[in-house]
Amino acid sequence: MSRLKTNYLNRELSWLDFNQRVLEEAADTSIPLLERLKFLAISASNLDEFFRVRVGGLQTLEQQGVMRPDAAGLTPEQQLTAIRRRVRQMIEEQYRVYREELEPQLAASGMRCLRPSELNAAQKRVLKQVFQNEIYPVLTPMAVGGEIEFPLLSSQGLNVCVRLAPGEGAEADAFRYAIIPLAGALSRIIGLPADAGYSYLLLEDAVTLYVGDFFPGETILETIPFRITRNADMSVREDSAEDLMEEMSNILDARRLGNYVRLEILENASAELTHFLRHALDIVPESLYPSKGPLDLSAFFRISDRPGFDHLKYESWPPFPSPDLPPGSSVFEAVSLQDILLYHPYESFEPVVRFIEQAADDPDVLAIKQTLYRTSRDSPIVAALLRAAERGKNVTVICELKARFDEARNIEWARQLEQAGAQVIYGVKGLKTHAKVCVVIRREPQGIQRYVHFGTGNYNEQTSRIYSDVSLLTCHPDLGADAIAFFNAVTGYSQPLQYHRIAAAPLGLRDKLLEMIRAETEIRRDGRPARIWAKLNALVDPTLIDALYDASQAGVEIKLNVRGVCCLRPGVKDLSENIEVVSIVDRFLEHARVLHFHHGGDDRVFISSADWMPRNLDRRVELLVPVEDPRCRDRLIHILEVCFADTVKSRKLTSSGTHRRIKVSGAEAIRSQQRLYDEANEARHLADQQRRTIFEPHRPG
Questions:
Q1: Which residue among 434, 596, 598, 659 is the active-site one?
Q2: 485 and 558 both lie in a single domain
Q3: pLDDT tens for each residue of 519-560
Q4: Residue 178 — pLDDT band, cuts 50, 70, 90?
């Protein structure tokens, strides 16, 4: 089909629409107050990363004079103009929600953010002591302006700019300036005594209140917080990097010096101070973002989990143990009997950790092969791999050093694993290894057995409690052989072979998806029912979008659950009228990639590490894994059915690129995450009852 720019939505504006859905949760009065505050903090944190990466990249293209439009027909300059307009609207809404709704309602509930003018005598005494003992000794004011070089400021760190009166004999407008970076070691939230509830003051307000202590004898005209964001969209030149670990360290250093892409400042700053900062930092007017404050709303993450305010939070939803893998049981024994599917965070990630820990401690395990992309700070999985290597097992780890913003942690893990004796591969030259797979090779009485874990999410037990992801544990011979072939292709010079069951990017995954989409298209053209259901984080790839348009025009029923960016334009007559796109934003981050093709009644179901984006399909090492066990396959189809039935937290994408909330009140209302959690609880109860009715005799020792 011909590729018309009107067929596609712009990626950046689609992402901003996603962040707007997050912000809408902060404004939703049916959500507990501290959860609303958390959604507000998430929307701010998301926007920070968007500027560091997406806006930074577009500004680089603009500066290089690139005029090539994207699939939607917008040049980098046009995209930046549209982004800035949309972001200003979003910032206005963020601060409206905070100042008019959340802050006063939290204060009424006993959690007060105090202004300096609201402090009582006891609070002032405590604050003065905290300032003198903990803040004043740490902070360092730096004179700036004139011949004095402007200091290197950290990206997204909070600072205050102080405007001082002109010196003796100077011109009336010869203001002097100083910068005080608010060190990251200091808490942004300063707790203060209160008769009831919790009262606190923000660090910048404390510094403003006592700023005169830094400049004795000087006249302070104003003290204004500000924050800068640097371009972090930098890539390693692997063709000239003899030592990738050293080159990645250089990238981390380069980010500290990246160009400025945003200056945030309080809107009550004087024209003189704003002009000084803009010119000192070489900020164009379009990159200046005044706000009502406080700056950096993501800082409120720190109080959203404050103890003693459980009535302002969601009811706790701890993950349940899988009925197929009771705590303490042998993962190898369970998986040898059947494939096991886990849906996190409704079911615990603990069996995945246990799988690797048992492999490390089992004398019959010969080797462990594992990919690592993003891990936790104190990862029990990495600890198990270290232990396995120290015990002489053959441990191979593909540790992706190019995982953006996790490079430093992965560099450290790679060094420790190498020192323990593991074979560490830093990914594939020119690609990011984003696949999630672990293979354990075990000696058993009947011979060598391969146990495999495939996942849609990271090997991170912390994020597994808030991200929805799928784990598949199997010892299927073909999947085990494919997993070994995958590792050999990545770690050696061998070309990827034809896999038995899986497909891998960058060679083969897009082709497999196109094959499945086109098969549904031909089935429908033959007059038979055809259906495609997909759950993704993002849909950007024009080739796949075009294939879906073709399928829609043939009459294939297509339902897409796309959490974030979606460049496909649904509901357009004679193009996509058979395509429905929904997005779910709720307490857990929707992260699983699950695909279902009806295939003439012979259901084909897959899980994947890859979103449908050019970066995943062309520039990353990804996996597409079939789920063929009937029980596991049917469960995934049911999960998709529940997600598409959501009428509480689901929003429907319109052809204009905006989302419209789907909401049905009363008995018909379905909140998919609540439904899936209740089902996991019910499965746990049923398994407990069955175990209680099974009699197991004591046998002589």
A1: 434
A2: no
A3: 999 999 999 999 999 999 999 999 999 999 999 999 999 999
A4: very high
Query: Could you tell me the end-to-end alpha-carbon distance of the chain, in angstroms, rounded to an integer?
Result: 73
Distance CA(291)–CA(269), nearest Å, equals: 10
Taking 90 as the threshold, does the pLDDT of residue 561 lie above it?
A: yes
Contact indicator for 399, 370 with CB cutoff of 8 Å: no
CATH of the domain at 633: 3.30.870.10
The pLDDT confidence band at residue 240, using thresholds 50, 70 and 90, is very low
How far apart are the C-alpha atoms of 373 and 426, rounded to whole Å? 10
Helices (H), 51-75: 56-63
What are residue 527's phi and psi, to 5 degrees? Answer: 90, 10
Domain boundary among 500, 520, 541: 500
How far is residue 645 from each of residues 283, 548, 577, 615, 651, measured CA to CA in Å?
47, 22, 19, 30, 11
- According to the model, what pLDDT value does residue 407 have? 61
The owner of tokens 């993450």 is 301
- Report the Cα 265 to chain-centroid distance in Å: 26
pLDDT at position 328: 87
Domain boundary among 470, 500, 530: 500
Q: Which domain holds residue 633?
A: 504-689
Q: What does the alpha-carbon distance between residue 652 and residue 570 come to, in Å, rounded to a whole number?
A: 10
Same domain, 509 and 656: yes
Q: Is 596 among the residues known to form the active site? A: no
**CATH at 159:** 3.30.1840.10
Could you report the per-residue pLDDT of 457-490, keeping only the tens digit for each?
A: 999 999 999 999 999 999 999 999 999 999 999 8
Peptide bond preceding 181 in cis form (omega within 30 of 0)? no
With pLDDT > 70 as the criterion, what percentage of the chain qualifies? 92
Number of H helices, E strands in the chain: 20, 27
